[in-house]
Amino acid sequence: MLGMLEGLRIVEVSSFVAAPLGGMTLAQLGADVIRVDPLGGAADTSRWPLAPSGTSLLWTGMNKGKRSVTVDFRSPEGREVVTRLAADAGIVLTNAVGRGWLGYEALSAVRPDLIHLQIEGRPDGSAAVDYTVNAEIGFPLVTGPVDHAGPVSHVLPAWDVACGLYAAVGLLAAERRRARRGEGAQIKLPLYDVALATAGNLGFLAEAQLGEERPRIGNYLYGGFGRDFAVGDGRVMVVALTTRHFTDLCEVTGVAETVAELGRMLRADFSVDGDRYRHREALAALLAPWFECRTLADVEKALAGTSVLWAPYKRFSELDLEGSPLMNEIDQPGVGRVRAPAIPLNTGERTAVPAPELGEHTDAVLASLGMDADELRARGVVA
Amino acid sequence: MLGMLEGLRIVEVSSFVAAPLGGMTLAQLGADVIRVDPLGGAADTSRWPLAPSGTSLLWTGMNKGKRSVTVDFRSPEGREVVTRLAADAGIVLTNAVGRGWLGYEALSAVRPDLIHLQIEGRPDGSAAVDYTVNAEIGFPLVTGPVDHAGPVSHVLPAWDVACGLYAAVGLLAAERRRARRGEGAQIKLPLYDVALATAGNLGFLAEAQLGEERPRIGNYLYGGFGRDFAVGDGRVMVVALTTRHFTDLCEVTGVAETVAELGRMLRADFSVDGDRYRHREALAALLAPWFECRTLADVEKALAGTSVLWAPYKRFSELDLEGSPLMNEIDQPGVGRVRAPAIPLNTGERTAVPAPELGEHTDAVLASLGMDADELRARGVVA
């Protein structure tokens, strides 16, 4: 995959997750992504989790394969350096707000066909982050144990992840148009809109508009049959999305006849996912004993060769990183030798690469634009 | 944004969430995305949630702006129709497995510069879905109430969403290279790898490799200060990512002096996010009374003009869809008049459009390739 986006250059002024992920995704596909930070780094420089050295594992995770330039954002001369970098690259990705000199108007005055993507919190430009957007979009009140009263916030910052990937899509789409028709683009991407659009795309908003209130159903699958089951040495998630999956599940667990009898008693048609969902608790009760008296290894052996979808619940420390073709050993400055992911888009050539050290490429990038980093450093404009 | 991807055509053979979202994202940017389904529809045709008519709100949500063609996948003649559509479009997006005639090898024999993106469950090609991948990637065991023993699965299929957006990125990147260098691409995108890469990008896997076990901390923000608080008429999520956020929060709630005193007693430096995180329970206890004796309106008024990040927890039915520039009223066949989202990438021109009816464009699409749908229909090849 290396080199697929060869020749594409992006200047990124970013922090935290969404914008850095957007840029990193393009870097992992071969684009030259220059993350420009203020002297000393942006607000995410020491974001947890941290390595023993204090290096942020979030920062190194989110900036793999980029070049790093640091400039004094407070000095007019430093801003001029960023403006020149942006004008040269022609594409700017940022989640910085309140900095007019980084906005579309200021930068497109220097580069008329600029592509500028601004990630913001809300459509009115006000601030919001993944964890606040998540609260107000609806999911925390339908997630978690049935008997739990309060909201369950997510730990995975799913909106930031989706937002970063939307940003990558938006930049590639705009660049395609510019390559054909010459025009630049001003794109705004509110994190709140990413969440609202996703809730709409998945049917949650249409359902609510039709007057249905989504219930909190714990680890059951909505609208089909799926649930977690305890096994002798752990816990597994089991999903039957289709009738074939469900039939296989009933047969391998030996409850096919009992389930058929239950269907007759309840006048339910278990070949339809709606009935499998409505009677999920009865069905789960029939299945649970089979899982309870088996180990993970027993379950794996029994379900192999069937269509049943299942997986054990695991801790992060239990994942098989050595066995994954996605994960490569890298030497990450500030962290050491660790396995890190490449991009999941696999063309047979993907390789994980480390994140840079902060400011590692300041001299080289400035030199490529004919600027003298040493001279700027003497005046405190770069570090 | 309409028309940004004008001239791009994609044939999508898909089901459920990831692949349909990938295609829809490109359709929402102006690509001509032709979703080809078997006669009667794919496995997601009646996926919940459902409208009273039985129309799937997931299906209509995931296929907005596409054209729909239905063909008999079991007949050689039907497969030939799909092959011709794929060869004409030059780009295929699919999550169908076990269908060799839809694979890269078969289709690139007809269209050598084909771009083919195959979404699969695991890197070895075996099946997996969002809910099973989620179980085995680590998040459910660190999500949810601190005193809850079991896993908490997510309700938002975040891996499917990320996977669909990665697919859109991959197709645009490959098409950019083809436009410049002429070569096609075979891309595989395992859902499991999407989840593993994301866990890695966010630092969870590096943290685990360094021997740290991520704790379950309920609705607290990891590595900073953030938590949910009860207010008189609801519940809010409050986040202080930076020292400025935290200082504002302490000042507006009148606990600045008490917090300073607490810092002295604990020898903690609350200008550092690590110490705000370590002492989160003590800090939250100081803040909780301020929230408890206020209404949502009080909180909104008090926090306006500060940098504090916050939002009320809401149900899907409580979202302000009328006030959102993202949501447009559409007439959705099978559903009626509802508000649906446009794409969150905003260039000032975004508009939501409905999903097609199943097979709505069979005749028009076949005619554009010089095929006679009536004649094929008479033989049962199309419906």
UniProtKB/TrEMBL annotation, chains A, B:
Query: Which Pfam families does the record cross-reference, listed alphabetically?
Result: CoA_transf_3
Q: Which UniProt keywords apply?
A: Transferase
Its domain of life reads Bacteria
By its UniProt entry, which Gene3D superfamilies does this protein fall under? Answer: Crotonobetainyl-coa:carnitine coa-transferase, domain 1, formyl-coa transferase, domain 3
Protein's UniProt keywords contain Lipid biosynthesis: no
One GO molecular function term of this record is: transferase activity
Give the InterPro entries listed for this entry.
CoA-transferase_III (IPR050509), CoA-Trfase_fam_III (IPR003673), CoA-Trfase_III_dom3_sf (IPR044855), CoA-Trfase_III_dom_1_sf (IPR023606)
Please state what the protein is called. Answer: CoA transferase
